[in-house]
Amino acid sequence: MSKRHVSLKDLARELNVSISTVSRALKDHPDISEEVRKKVKRLAAERNYSPNPLAMGLLKQATRMIGIIVPDLVTHFYSSIISGIESVAKEKGYFVVIASSNEKLEKEKESIANLLQARVEGLIICMSRETTNTEHLEQLLKADIPLVMFDRVCLTNQISAVIADNADASQKIVAHFYSKGYRRIAYVSGPDNLSISKERMAGYLTGLEACGLPIDAALIETCDLTFESAQAAMNRLLQLPIPPDAVFGINDTVAFGLMKAIKTAGLRIPHDMGVVGFTDEFHSTVVDPPLTSVTHPTFEMGQKTAELFFKRLHSAALSETVILETKLVERESSEKPQ
Amino acid sequence: MSKRHVSLKDLARELNVSISTVSRALKDHPDISEEVRKKVKRLAAERNYSPNPLAMGLLKQATRMIGIIVPDLVTHFYSSIISGIESVAKEKGYFVVIASSNEKLEKEKESIANLLQARVEGLIICMSRETTNTEHLEQLLKADIPLVMFDRVCLTNQISAVIADNADASQKIVAHFYSKGYRRIAYVSGPDNLSISKERMAGYLTGLEACGLPIDAALIETCDLTFESAQAAMNRLLQLPIPPDAVFGINDTVAFGLMKAIKTAGLRIPHDMGVVGFTDEFHSTVVDPPLTSVTHPTFEMGQKTAELFFKRLHSAALSETVILETKLVERESSEKPQ
DNA sequence: ATGAAAGCGCTAACAC
DNA sequence: GTGTTAGCGCTTTCAT
């Protein structure tokens, strides 16, 4: 277990100069003679010197780490957003430490504590589906810990956030169904505490109105975002006296659950039931039939989130909400045969 | 930007004792009087003291960080393995820093450099599909940097590794097809440099032999693991004078590509063509028809990998290979109607 | 039983 | 132009 990294001290000793001279030479301090600078830089390059981030962190009280907490790690949506965050973090010389709340409030709190203990400089959070109470987030605000949220957000007047234009997306879906000839359009939402639930619901309602369709409470279902609960919600819709002829779900997993339930009931998509989801490109094309869906600009969402984070990190605690446009990609699942 | 964390110094000042006394009291040093110990611990708890990991790292020359490099972050397989690694890392007070090679050799090298610069204590790597040359990994060995690999491994006589029993899995698939009545079984493999390609190929061949089926080179196709290249490979198989009646692909994405190409060609699964893949539970059930597939014990693979990592970290550089069993889950895609 | 001091790697204010 | 020193938070040896 030989000594793994060369330090300024090592270089200084070898060159018979002081540590500060080496330090200065490396950062092109004007006081240093050309000759020494060259000598130092050459040796540093040769020995593969790189400053010890721990020492720097200790000195500057900055770890250059950002903590990210997502509801889960196995959903493309989050992975892709994380990639976006990473891409700009890396540019700034930061790296990210990722934690998953597994959709549990307790785990979310625990992760916050862990990350703070690891001395991240701030947090980027997407709430778990259980997060009805935001006390733990308010505490972060009080402690003046940089915090930015995305997708499932809250307290947006105090916390910077990046979200998709969810209301608009839902409206687009309703309008799309309408244009394809579907008339009884159902929606399977998620837990009420989530901002995405509220926003997408709002868009659904204005969408119906815009098309001149009546609002029927029976066509509004809720699930807890799991595949199984989505299936169950769909089954309830199918058992209505007058079932819907189209349905859309709040996210990928839910959309797949809906499709499963519909097929299991022996109905055909898109003939008997049109389906639209909020999913990523890849999985929409993999399912059968290919799923018409609203795709989020996930990578860009991640980048924007990181940008807001750095803004917050370097300047005062003002909050800003960035809303990104979604795209409705038409595929077979909503192509009602005439 | 108030001072965010209390230090030993803060506690010491408030209690009018020395820093060392506080330090000792907190770790139950026998020399400390019961009275002082209690006093210190109470205040520490009250002030929510937690040792600064940067200072500890600097002192102990240990960051308690593990670097992980995976080919991509948006595949369930890797996410799940990462979760497994994290679960045991966390237990040991370590945390993981994740980097993606995006299947590129250059990015893999770059990530290694980045992570080392961030002073991870060691690396856990799954090779990119481009990694034909292992020099950069051998350099890690030479530098005595703890390294463990999983799934796509190499140099297993020097590097500890966790893999699935890939040969066995392929054999099971062939035997399964055979038992269902399929006789011309094709295989779409991945790049030759990957261990999983070789192992799964070997199993395919012994599997055919075990069933008394002839080996037909025309039924062996290769792709670069993308959805598109898998489709292309399947199309080549479909254009054979005598096309296969069953096919399996080396991973999820490939399996989905195969299905897509088969359906696009107007063939029915499982009637005209049986399909089996290596995928996770969730996506296998989402596609249509549900895909018979070999599932990896991904979470467990991650845990085992982490265990090997810590073994390597604490003791000498001996290498060990752990092979985990896979499970063939039968679904509709290989249920040939009689 | 407790305190002082050195040192982990680095920077910056202060000598000279 | 270069060296010395203090200090970031912590542990540990050596004094007392």
What keywords describe this structure?
six-stranded parallel β-sheet, alpha/beta, Rossmann fold, 13 helices, DNA-binding, homodimer
- Tell me which protein chains meet in the greatest interface and how many residues each side has: A-B, 44 and 44 residues
CA gyration radius of chain A, whole angstroms: 26 Å
Number of domains of chain A: 3
Q: Report the CATH superfamily of the largest domain in chain A.
A: Response regulator
Distance from N terminus to C terminus of chain A (CA atoms, Å) equals 73 Å
Mean pLDDT of chain A: 93
CATH class of the largest domain in chain A: Alpha Beta
SSE arrangement of chain A, N to C? HHHHEHEHEHEEHEHEHEHEHEHEE
Report the biggest beta sheet of chain A as strand number plus sense, adding barrel if it closes: 6 strands, parallel
Helix content of chain A: 40-55%
> Oligomer, anyone?
homodimer
Taken as a percent bin, the fraction of beta residues of chain A is 15-25%
Query: What structural category do the secondary elements of chain A indicate?
Result: alpha/beta
CATH topology of the largest domain in chain A: Rossmann fold
Largest sheet strand order of chain A? 2-1-3-4-5-11
Low-confidence sequence ranges of chain A: none
CATH architecture of the largest domain in chain A: 3-Layer(aba) Sandwich
